[in-house]
Amino acid sequence: MIYMRNLFLVLIILSVQFSIKAQVKLPALVADNMVLQQNAKVNLWGWGSPNEKITIKLGWQNSLVEVMANSAGDWKVAVDTPQGSEKAYSITINATNTIVLNNILIGEVWICSGQSNMYFPVGKEEATWKTGVKNYEEEIVNANFPNIRLFTVLTNASPKPLDDVTGSWAACSPNTIKTFSAVAYFFGRDLYQKLKVPIGLISTSWGGTKAEAWTPQNVLENNTDFLTILGEDAKNEKIYQEKLETYYLNLRNEQLANNNLKTEIKKPKKEANKTSYVLYNAMLHPLINYRIKGVIWYQGESNSGKAKLYQNLFPAMVKSWREDWKQGDFPFYYVQIAPHKGQTPEIREAQLLSLKKITNAGMVVTTDVGNETNIHPIDKQTVGHRLALIARAKTYGENKLVYSGPMYHHMKITKNRVQLFFDNVDSGFRKPSEDLKEFEIAGEDKIFYTAVAKIEGKTILVSSEKVKNPVAVRFAWKPVPEPNLFNVENLPASPFRTDDWIIETTLK
Questions:
Q1: I need a labelling partner for 244 at 20 to 30 A (CA). Which of 92, 215, 238, 294 fits?
Q2: Alpha helix locations (H) across 363-449?
Q3: 107 class by beta-carbon count within 10 Å (0-12 exposed, 13-18 middle, 19+ buried)
């Protein structure tokens, strides 16, 4: 009797375990309220029982879609999406269990990534660096855009690539926008108002992070220059472990001395987001099945001390993302970091030079919206708007739209003057209310002097009485420049230098 009862319990347990195992599960991204990329083959994927048959009913087509899970229970299928519209659809997934996804829109999907200036939310959080954007109360009240959908990836780090993230889709509203990325929102809002199709914004960012944290491990290991980064990681890990060892030794001694378990010794903290590739593993790798239109990126502050390395690291990171997504050279638009006393002009130069290394890229200049003492300037509306300008011009076909400020192209030396030529000044320069600022000029001695700069047509003439035979010019070449060079479209010129002389910070 006891034997039969135990056997019965075992059978019940096995039945429950099988039932649980058979349940089809979906990643966080494939859920209610999501936006799927329009006019594309998009992936639906998840997990179930080994070799399980899954049937999918798409709200926008009559025919069913069938897919078989592999021997590990993983499944993925590509489906066609129609033209984007405000019409909401449902998706029904049938297997051992049934999952119904509701309120799904078809439109444009963008990844929004980087460090704290991308993470910076629209609303204010008391007693933190999250001070809210300019006019945040008004922006929150007016953020009623149900066809803009928001997904924030919960911050996480992992030594190994993960398959899923924590987060959920939500319609944009005054309640949901408060904690969402401001740059991403203003970018998406501008696109929505122009394109008139739903916009999906996936915010995956973390403050204080370096580009190497967002780069796959194999990319870092297969580049000689990047091995120094991994070496520093190993050194920092060793230091942390030594501190941890000392902590436990002191903790034991104090407990023995006091004959109790109370202690005032502080345990050393480890910043999980500082190590190479851990954010790629946890916050980007799980997203690569999701079809996107492109990426916007705001990062660089944490790499400013090693600008020379960033010139190669940043393009390598972008290249690896594109290889993972297998969508070709999708748009990658980024923000040149704003003026701040703790930054260097060399990191802005690295970002400027990256334009030549990254295909289908664009860069927003922010010299007019920075803050000398606040590394998180609150004018995120301008940043988002300028990112949207690039997307509208380069991705969405507004070919006549000027999306960039003046970019230095080349120079011509005539006696004691240097003539500078620029791209993106077809309509000319904006006439400044005062003399042009932030120009410097140098001769062979490499000593720079403040220069007189004047607009001549679509060029700039630069000179100084102290430099009779000039060879180089620099513009806005300082941590906190205040330049006033804009094109007629009111977009600022990027800082630059015409020389390639070795600077201490560019050696790193």
A1: 215
A2: 380-394
A3: buried
Give the SS3 label for residue 502: coil
DSSP strands (E only) in 69-208? 74-80, 85-94, 98-114, 145-152, 169-172, 199-205
Angle between helices 307-325 and 345-354 (to 10 degrees): 40
Q: Tell which phi-psi region holds residue 408, choosing left (phi > 0), alpha (psi between -120 and 50) or beta.
A: beta
Name the strand (E) or helix (H) holding 14.
Answer: helix 2-22
Instruction: For residues 427 and 153, give the distance between their C-alpha atoms in angstroms, rounded to a whole number.
Output: 42
Rg of the Cα atoms in the chain: 27
Retrieve residue 454's tokens: 């004047």
Measured in degrees and rounded to the nearest 5, phi and psi for residue 502 equal -70, 130
pLDDT at 244: 92
Cβ count near 199 (within 10 Å): 28
Residue 27, amino acid: P
- Helix runs in 259-328, H state only: 278-279, 307-325
Local mean pLDDT, 10-residue blocks, the chain (508 residues): 52 46 88 98 97 96 96 96 96 96 98 98 95 96 98 97 98 98 98 98 97 98 96 94 91 79 80 94 98 98 94 98 98 97 95 97 97 95 98 97 98 96 97 95 97 97 97 97 97 98 70
Q: How far is CA 203 from CA 5, 131, 277, in A?
A: 53, 19, 18
- State the virtual CA torsion across 410, 331, 363, 303 in degrees, nearest 10: -110
| Digit-coded pLDDT (tens) for 221-276 | 999 999 999 999 999 999 999 999 999 998 888 888 777 666 678 889 988 899 99
pLDDT for the residue 252: 86
d(CA 3, CA 412): 96
